[in-house]
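Dear Dr. L.,

I hope this message finds you well. Following up on our conversation about the binding site, I have prepared a predicted three-dimensional model of the protein together with nickel (II) ion. For your records, I am including the exact sequence and ligand specification that went into the calculation, followed by the structure tokens. Please feel free to forward this to your student if that is useful.
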Amino acid sequence: MAIRNILVKGDEMLTKKCRVVTKFDKRLHILLDDMRQTLAEAGGAGLAAPQVGVLRRVVVLMDINKDPEEVIELINPEVIDMNELVSTPEGCLSVPGEWGYVDRPTWAKVRAQDRNGEWFEREGEGVVAQCFCHETEHLDGHLFTEKVTEFFDPEELEQEK
Ligand code: NI
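The resulting structure of the complex is given below.
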């Protein structure tokens, strides 16, 4: 396994639409293992393949609602259901130093394939639902900053408390 370099805003790889995964082979498994390690090292909530320069529809994210936390691997994911949107604070490993409020569901359901190509559905609440949306948008070349209704400085929020 290897830690991969996380691309940051301004890199054009982050603006590309990613291709569907059709081969569930060793190469995909290495990518997934590297992404898991890269996400753990960065301490993020989720990571999409274009963030490490691979234009394929692959996502890893943390299910923090499980104890112990579980890593979810999503290949060719699609958000198929969600509840009403709520203004939610958000950030991204590819957009260091910027945070903002984005309208996100508090519950969502995703349909995806696992690393062997088997289709499954999974529900997520809170940050997990938010991640389903955020990471799927990365696969279409979109960053959360495009959807921010208001940017904020987390240090200022701390001071107000
Ligand atoms: Ni992101």
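In brief: The pocket of nickel (II) ion is lined by residues 92-94, 134, 138 (CB under 6 Å).

With kind regards,
A. P.
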